[in-house]
TrEMBL record:
InterPro entries xrefs: AAA+_ATPase (IPR003593), ABC_transporter-like_ATP-bd (IPR003439), ABC_transporter-like_CS (IPR017871), BCAA_Transport_ATP-bd_LivF (IPR052156), P-loop_NTPase (IPR027417)
Species of provenance: Sphaerotilus microaerophilus
Family label: Belongs to the ABC transporter superfamily.
Keyword Kinase: no
Domain of life: Bacteria
Pfam families: ABC_tran
Record-annotated ABC transporter domain positions: 6-239
Keyword annotations from UniProtKB, A to Z: Amino-acid transport, ATP-binding, Cell membrane, Membrane, Nucleotide-binding, Transport
Molecular function as annotated in GO: ATP binding
Protein's name according to its UniProt entry: ABC transporter ATP-binding protein
Amino acid sequence: MSNPILELSGVHTHIGAYHILHGVDFAVPAGEVTMLLGRNGAGKTTTLRTIMGLWRVSQGDVRFQGRSLKALATPEIAHQGIAYVPENMGIFTDLTVKENMLLAARSARNASELDTQRLEWIFGFFPALRKFWLYPAGKLSGGQKQMLAVARAICEPRALILIDEPSKGLAPSIIQNLVTAFNELKRQKTTILLVEQNFMMAKALGDSVAVMDNGRVVHTGAMRELAEDDMLQQRLLGLSLGAHQ
């Protein structure tokens, strides 16, 4: 494993009276894609939200580039260079695509200050965003909204991107565009922590993997090793990746 950019050590999270995370431990290597897998309700989304400070760490620590995040508010965490694409996409439906992108670009005060070279790079993966640049985001299709959510996260270089189930409900052609975009980000040494239920996408993208069950990490290792071991998949996930070929 290369040097970790993110480390969770004994992380517990309570939401009201409910104890959701029970001592989560794993590290995210810099410049790689780490898959966070597990059955529904295992705690994957709560883990991402805890990293972002949307839920507070009740015990343990989250460290990013060696600095603890647990006492920081969500905007402060974002300013460390972490972007988050939630499962519900988090776009502003009443604003145009352009306005959504401008809000995500911290270095631009108006559209003329957006990095046009980077925009062209993003449009190469998601051409629909160019076509609907002046449309309200709420009028986009589900796939187009997901494109916008990812585009907002990568409109400026980030050190780490947390992404929650980006392929959910998308057509295979759009999923392939996402895979291409994420592979290009990986080539640029952007670190990605990705929750995903599409196991072929996980296999195509993942370098390392952490598998969760009942609020705990029950397995860590190379994604390739998990993808090649049907018995391990059955034990950890209750299914075989081979069935999704």
